[in-house]
Amino acid sequence: MLKTKRLFDDKPYETLFESVVTHVGEGFIILEQTLFYPLSGNQNFDIGFINGHPVTEVHVESDSDGKLNLNAPIKHFIDTSTFSIGQHVRGDIDETRRIKTMRLHTASHLIEFFVKKLPYFLSVEGSFVDDVKDRTDYSLSKNIDQNLLRLIENQVNDFIAQAHSVSFSYQYGVRFWNCNGIEMPCCGTHVSNTKEIGEIRLSRKNKGKGLNRIEVTLV
What we know:
Blueprint lengths: L4 E2 L9 E9 L3 E4 L1 E2 L13 E3 L2 E3 L1 E4 L13 E4 L10 E6 L1 H22 L4 E9 L4 E7 L5 H16 L5 E5 L2 E6 L2 E4 L14 E9 L2 E8 L1
Parallel strand pairs: 1-4
Antiparallel strand pairs: 2-3, 2-9, 3-8, 5-6, 5-9, 7-8, 10-11, 11-16, 12-13, 13-14, 15-16
Helix pairs in contact: 1-2
């Protein structure tokens, strides 16, 4: 069974890697190991180059129950005309895109932590993070107004400035993000310390029916 070793789990700051092609499909290749993060866990995919050819998308298949399989093969969408099984290749991911996504993803977890402390928090209904912004939809029994949004923003920025370290652990095959006693399941890439995030800015959109979308950008 084909599988791809996820180098980015332990080496999120690295951008160059070497690997071997294990499969050539229609418009994509699968590698033995990769630093390219695939679209999954509400985080966008990396882009970059393999042997100088642009990688336009990166995807991974979920299990039949919809859960992410950390051993699943990762598909790198690319012009396959120059690739063959067994070929040794060199990959190079877009560092700027990766780092910005990491900063925003870590910020997203901190915002979620403070929103969940609100007395009218009900649930998280969805989220997505890329290198431009993070957006998360919260179900609340009371909408967040601008004053409360600024309060949450200040709480998160204060927490960020305290320079807390970020680490990961595994429980029953599930990867958990940890930061100063906060723990959340997550398979994405993150900074190693909150100070790397820098200052963030929040905005809100009322999606109706008690849904509040909070968007975060880097200042």
